[in-house]
Amino acid sequence: MKKNITLISFLLFSLIGWAQIPANYYSTAIGSGYALKTQLRKIIDNVNDGFSSEHIAFDPGYAGLYTTYQTSDVKPNGRVLDMYSDCDFIFGTVGSGGQQDNGTNPSGECELFNREHTVPQSFFGNSVQPMFSDAHFVIPSDKIVNATRDDFPYGRVSSPSYTSGNGSKKGNNLNSGYSAGYATTVFEPIDQYKGDIARLMFYFVTRYENQLTTFFSTSTSTSKVMFDGTTGKSFSDTFLNIFITWHIQDPVSQKELVRNDAIYARQNNRNPFIDKPEYVCQIWPTQCASLTSENFILENTISIYPNPAVNNEITISSATELKSIIFYNINGQIIQEIKNPTRVDNCYKITNLPSGFYIVQLGSDNAVATKKVIVK
């Protein structure tokens, strides 16, 4: 476990330098387990806890989310970044040339975008503040895909009944492997954003830790199955395993760092699990240990040669069949992603790699390994 987390931390090291974390923001987060979670909640909530470096969260309002998105969720082309679709939405109201939800019913995807509560409102109570307007877990989304996701929990879809423009899916959960324990309808984001969604969920159960028991006892939401009704562990076993796995397999990206800084500028609080991803396994160490044991085994059965690469080519040798090979640069950006790569004699040949230093993430059905590669 330690080896796997160390390698993931190495990947994130260069990313964290870009985050604009205020001095001493996490200086009181010195515990472990659920005590650490409570310490983080006091840092990011809207209560004055008497810290020497106090940053009290405030609420820009539900309408203010559309303003926040203009700095927090922006594609390089200036359009809306929607994790559920590949749509190219324009910021602003319909009358001014934008595609912000105007209350009408679109006929299909890519017509209007609105505000998606990744933890559905029905779990905590419709329009209840401040969670109703909290941009850390309320994201811009295609209106059709948002409605299709409804209040279903997140999970691994075994056979999709619906697939969005970018490959997000709805269907029955794959009741095996790290997602075992639940078999009915779930919504699955694409691999590129699974870690993002997981870290939004970790934020929610931390920021609203002392209200989770009330939410759970009064909720009739389908999403309720993701939670266990406690302030500490917070998640039910199946979904805690899913979110930890996604967090490990899809590390923090520069997009998340930019988003975290932009929301901090608007709300005056941050998502700790983006700033310091290691907090996840410090709060839920038992679950991390059980999930990363498979990763450790995979890690030690994979070799990459030659390293440094020769003629911009490498060979990846793995006794386990790989389902994905992803190359990240030092800024955490995906340079190349190969799904279901071709395997010959337990080896995968990768060619035409640009010069640079890379972190390579290798995924099997149940585990993930991370390696370093230099291409001269």
Provide key terms for this protein.
single chain; 376 residues; Immunoglobulin-like; 4-stranded antiparallel β-sheet; 12 helices; 12 strands; disordered N terminus
Q: Number of helix segments?
A: 12
Radius of gyration: 21 Å
The termini sit apart by 31 Å
User: Total number of β-strand segments?
Assistant: 12
Q: What would the average pLDDT be, to the nearest integer?
A: 91
Order of helices and strands: HHHEHEHEEEHHHHHHHEEEEEEE
Helix percent reads 25-40%
Percentage of β-strand residues: 15-25%
What's the shape?
globular
Give the spatial strand order of the biggest sheet. Answer: 9-8-11-12
Counted up, domains total 2
Low-pLDDT segments: 1-18
Q: For the report, how would you describe the main beta sheet?
A: 4 strands, antiparallel
Oligomer: single chain
Question: Based on helices, strands and strand pairing, what is the structural class?
Answer: alpha+beta
